[in-house]
Amino acid sequence: MNIFLGSMFSKTSWKMDLFKSYGWQHILIISVGLFLCVYLAYRFRKFDEKQNNRLLFSLGIFLLVSEIYKQLFYYYHIGNGSYQWWIFPFQLCSVPMYLLIILPFIKNVSIKRGMYNFMATYNLLGGFLSLFEPSGLIHEYITLTTHAFIWHLILVFVGFYLIASNRCLKDISGYKYATYTFLTLSLIAFTINLLLWNVSKHTINMFFVGPANNPIMIYKDIASAYGWKIATLIYIPTVCLGAFIVFYIIKFFKDRFFMNESIDTI
């Protein structure tokens, strides 16, 4: 069975020439991708709750199926039958896969509001940063590169769509709900890191909150000099600040372009 699956995934291991950040390929991808995100978000902004649930659930299923492919590709082709713990699917940009699938079934308004606001701030920020600093998205395999770019463009689309449809970020409480969700997920990620620390041979680092050192520029240097705890204590508030800036910018434009015509659901 393993030999068969290994052979099957090897057949999809089409290699590509690595393109550079802000080369014509990168600029084309983000230009077309962001245009489609904005256009479709605006086009779907008046979806009712039933249509909204179908859209979000469908996107969640798409992300799940594509993530399963990625995990199996890494396991059978890249890892040769060894699981690559560093791609365990619970990073900041992985969380929407779970949220989009369960959102249609959430009845608690506060929980649903927190999820919406989280995806419209923290995930929107993560999607944008990844697209504009794409070193982690560009792989030597066509399928992995395609997966990475489409994944983060979906995060951007979902954020834009939730904003345009007025399902989030109505006031400062939206940012608070988003931050509560982020902190809760960070705690879950840290727990996962601790539970799988030895099994992963110290390679797992969900949300980059430790105990492994943060690999992100600046925080990596802080962790090397002062330890992962200090780096995490600086990293988390910085992410919260970045999300607040996103919230402030979005709220400014949202009140001027979408408030009067969008559906008010939550």
Report on this structure.
There is one protein chain. With 266 residues, the chain is an all-alpha fold. It has one domain (19-257). Helices cover 66% and strands 0% of the residues. The chain is built from nine helices and no strands. It has helices spanning 2-10, 24-43, 49-78, 95-102, 109-132, 142-164, 172-195, 219-226, 228-257. Helix 2 runs parallel beside helix 6, helix 5 crosses helix 7 and helix 7 (172-195) packs antiparallel against helix 9.
What attributes does this structure have?
globular, 266 residues
Q: What is the terminal separation in angstroms?
A: 48 Å
In terms of structural class, how would the helical and strand content be classed? mainly alpha
Number of domains: 1
- Succession of helices and strands: HHHHHHHHH
Report the average pLDDT across residues: 92
The major beta sheet can be summarized as: none
Can you give me a brief rundown of this structure?
By secondary structure, the protein is mainly alpha-helical. It has helices spanning 2-10, 24-43, 49-78, 95-102, 109-132, 142-164, 172-195, 219-226, 228-257. It is globular.
Please outline the helices and strands.
Elements: H1 2-10, H2 24-43, H3 49-78, H4 95-102, H5 109-132, H6 142-164, H7 172-195, H8 219-226, H9 228-257
Helix pairs in contact: 1-3, 2-6, 3-4, 3-6, 5-6, 5-7, 5-9, 7-9, 8-9
